[in-house]
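User: Let's play a game. I give you a shape written as tokens, and you guess the letters that built it. Ready? Here's round one.
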């Protein structure tokens, strides 16, 4: 990793740490050391500090006074709060979709559903297709403040989902859950859209919590 990379160095470091957490190279409670990262990535400590600060603000890492920065231990309440917030925000923001969506937009959503239901062991691929599906439902949203906040919540929820997706839903369940969202959007009922998307995430958050309790 060098400073010649056009993408901001801080963002590359964030992605490196994020992927390490997803792949469980860093686990809850592990300390993230600036010097170690700087040496391993061949960068100065300044962008490392920037990246760590942003991940702390996202709730993925936590700063402990006089101790350093650690991977945050996610509690059941964190999970419920994350998915409840995600469902409420996305449900509201998706209302703009029904005012401007074209037939092509809906066609794209159906294509994503078909792709998500294909058998694969690549958890990142499933999550990425899911991201594209949900981003499509938000493509006409103009509230930048809420969209930015939702993006921050997404980072934390993705880590939780990556680690648990294989135990959460079958491929058929993934398909039906997203078809339900499409049908709600096609209905153009604001109440149905908000409640369907809110329940979509609330169910996932609840399942993740239950899986943790079983462990």
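Assistant: Ready! My guess for every position:
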């Amino acid at each position: 990793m060098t400073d010649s990379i056009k993408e901001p160095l801080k963002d590359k470091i964030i992605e490196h740490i994020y992927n390490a957490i997803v792949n469980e190279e860093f686990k809850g409670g592990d300390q993230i050391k600036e010097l170690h990262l700087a040496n391993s990535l061949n960068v100065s400590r300044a962008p490392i500090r920037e990246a760590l600060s942003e991940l702390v603000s996202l709730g993925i890492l936590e700063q402990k006074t006089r101790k350093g920065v650690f991977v945050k231990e996610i509690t059941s309440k964190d999970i419920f709060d994350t998915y409840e917030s995600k469902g409420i925000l996305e449900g509201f923001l998706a209302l703009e979709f029904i005012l401007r969506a074209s037939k092509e937009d809906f066609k794209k959503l159906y294509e994503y559903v078909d792709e998500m239901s294909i058998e694969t062991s690549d958890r990142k691929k499933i999550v990425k297709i899911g991201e594209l599906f949900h981003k499509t439902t938000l493509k006409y949203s103009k509230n930048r403040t809420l969209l930015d906040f939702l993006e921050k919540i997404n980072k934390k929820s993705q880590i939780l989902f990556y680690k648990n997706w294989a135990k959460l839903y079958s491929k058929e369940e993934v398909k039906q859950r997203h078809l339900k969202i499409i049908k709600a959007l096609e209905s153009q009922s604001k109440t149905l859209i908000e409640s369907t998307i809110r329940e979509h995430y609330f169910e996932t958050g609840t399942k993740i919590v239950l899986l943790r309790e079983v462990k």
